[in-house]
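Summary for the funding panel

The consortium committed to producing paired sequence-structure records for every protein in the target list. Below we show the first two records in order, beginning with the earlier of the two.
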Amino acid sequence: MYDFTYQKPGNLADAVKALGVADANALAGGMTLVPVLKQRLNKPSVVVDLARLGMAGINTSDTAVVIGAMTTHGAVAASTDLKRAIPGLFNLAGMIGDKEVRHRGTIGGSLANNDPAADYPAAVLALGATVKTDKRTISAEEFFQGMFATALQPGELITSVSFPIPARAAYEKFRNPASRYAIVGVFVANGPMGVRVAVTGAGQGGVFRHKAFEAALAKNWSVKSLDGISTPADGLNSDIHASAEYRAHLIGVMAKRAVAATA
């Protein structure tokens, strides 16, 4: 690692002030930042630990579930309230990494990093969630802006995420056998924002909506309605784990499994 100053503020205002320094980095669960620091791929002047800010917890109402940014994946996967309200999101959290990752990684950190194979972006986009920061509220459509890119401004911190409760939703993914990240993941939802299908792990630009699947499911919410709809391989990732063509095939398979799971 390179040398840096470590700060652990006790409130949001002090955290935002600390992040105002040039080349400052926020530390949530550290699932991405710590390995990057160890590999000397990042050289922050200040690392600001968010652990004492109290931005954790899950609150449900009749219309929405609000999850604090510092809520761990493990806490999301253990919430009985969330399981009743949005079982698809509850199940998604339980699929993230292994138990060590789930008990350190946070939803806010995952979204701020916007890894192209992360799971939460698919849920946020498919459910039409809104991301609240210390400055504003950002819609899912505006938040994701490409691989590892978001609408967050320098020093801006996610404080919570609000998910509208859908009539039905589910997530399925084809996992990397070692790290269990999504080689392809598909979240389907039918809720206040309409029928939406979001795909993660496949696109070169990160998470995206599958409009052809959405149109078919809006007419008839069934596995058979997706028959005959192909996904072009152009613009999809291709690596040692799966070619673009294979990922295109997996998108259809995972989408059908997700629709079946809502039944």
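The next record, for a separate protein in the list, is shown here:
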Amino acid sequence: MTGDTVLDFLELYAFDLFCHWNLDRTSVVRNHLQILDRVIERLCAQAERLGLKALLVVDHGQERVRHTLNLCRILKGSSVPRNDYLFYIEVCNARFWFFTDAARKVLSNRLSSIEGATFLTAAEMEKYHIHFAESEGFGDAYLITDPGTIFFPHDFYHPLVNWYMARNTPEQAARKSSPVHRGYHGHLPASPVDTGYLSACTPGLKPLAKKGELIDFAPSVLSLLRRPVPPQMAGKALFE
């Protein structure tokens, strides 16, 4: 951070990845949090010395994984022909494409009844600011797990990748004992684990609202940079 640029954006992704495999080790996570606090403290102090404004953005938390859902087994037991639908499973959300009305009806009813997950159509996802036109082909429906629950197995998992990451990445050594994540996020925005915060770390920034959404971040930064906010941005500026 030198003060020569208009905007410096620093993403501290390593701690998020660390928590995915170590959230069950409280003392270790606490130690890494203290290290992260010191890094942020130095960055904010440097910004203040240079007369710059610093924002700390935390877009989500982490929830300890307590349950797993075997979605492949559930789908296999639905009796719907495999050629009538397509699916892709991530750690805590799955996406579906239906090729027949029968597959849509049967699987929608089956997936809606799963405990520990929420079934949403593509249209229902719009209330969470996620919109894909039908022509884009991103999916007809979604199944999103509740905090504390993930899908396993999922399409991100591969035994060889798991072995390699466990062997070569100390932060993910927990993969040796189990390939199931210890902590995860990415659930519905209404859940506590997906509640974040935006904090002004230097004086001179007056908040315009007590609460906001992730879509408010870009308009807020553009406003602070005295740049126009494009009309297609649905969010609002959170600081004066």
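Regarding this second record: The chain has six helices and ten strands. Strands lie at 55-58, 63-64, 67-69, 85-89, 93-98, 117-121, 141-145, 149-151, 183-184, 197-200.
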